[in-house]
Amino acid sequence: MKKHLLNRREFAARCAAFGMLAVEASAQVPGTSAPSKLPARTVRLPDGTVVTALGQGCWHLGQGRHPQEVEEAALRTGIALGMTLLDTSGNYGRGRSEEFLSHVLAGQRDRIFLVSKVEGDEVSGDGIAHACAASLARLGTDYLDLYLLHWPIPSAQFPGVVAGFEKLRAAGRIRAWGVSNFSVGQMEELLRVPEGHRCATNQVPYSLNRRQIEADVLPWCRQHNVPVMAYSPLGGDKNLVIGDRTLAQIGAAHGCSAAAIALAWVIRSGNVIAIPESGSPDHVRENAVALSTALTPQDLQALNGAFPGPSGAS
User: How far from each other are the two terminal CA atoms of the chain, in whole angstroms?
Assistant: First the structure.
């Protein structure tokens, strides 16, 4: 029988998964109980790459919200706890988020699954290649693990965008590509484009208080083996769910924070990656507990009562 040999990417992904197992079994969060011994929570992308189910968003980082050294410590803490997917964009702070991330990537690029984005007004002609080159220069790396189209564009432009992504992939500048904020109709149009089936993810808002995708986008993505990447998984800056009494009660029962429960809910299916943002090492430690928190049927019933989903949700 011919043995399957792992390529470097597959080998790194498996090492990362085993690394998360070890970290989660030993990590302690001040004021919480020890995580239960559960398998590492991961999501498999369509090309077979395995990534953590809990990453770190970087929208506001590197832009003065917190001292830079504190934000760097927060990201490094998350990476050490298994949150090795980092999500940024060329337009976050006009490139300052990517420039900030270059300091965190230095010396540990191989541990990171790095995601950035291109804007819809940059995709004509050779715009995708130019935008990618600018992002790579700011990040101080020679490749992205995943490159996303940040917002939908007219479907007539889909063939050119897919071709641009595929050219970058063939050149080794990106390893996979995907989209963000796409509806079911737009995803259907994308899959009709040659090579459109290579779309690795659809990044959309998803949290306990923003469950609209459960009625359409989420089941469609599950059916077509396209994982969802959930941004604002705690509800977003102005609508955080972490003050909810039900979340606090469930967190107390599990010995963890309300945030960890909210994130454990988002990633519960095995087909969703959550990317919460935090500039605080303490908050990152709280978030990371979601990787080893299993919600009970009673927990899920209580959360459904506190945060009803949309009618027609599967």
Answer: 42
Region 234-256 average pLDDT: 95
Residue 219 CA to residue 313 CA, distance in Å, equals: 8
What homologous superfamily is domain 51-306 in, according to CATH?
Answer: NADP-dependent oxidoreductase domain (3.20.20.100)
- Return the pLDDT at 238: 84
- Asked if 275 and 56 count as a contact pair (C-beta separation under 8 A), the reply is yes
The pTM is what? 0.86
Calculate the CA dihedral of residues 105, 43, 183, 276 and round it to 10 degrees.
-50
d(CA 204, CA 233): 10
φ, ψ dihedrals at 177, nearest 5°? -140, 160
- pLDDT tens sequence across 293-309: 999 999 999 999 999 99
Question: At CA 303, angle to CA 301 and CA 309, rounded to 5?
Answer: 95
Q: Going by DSSP bridges, is the β-strand pair 42-44/50-52 parallel, antiparallel, or unpaired?
A: antiparallel
Dihedral sign (CA 47, 53, 58, 59): positive
pLDDT at 265: 98
Phi, psi dihedrals of residue 43, rounded to the nearest 5° = -130, 135
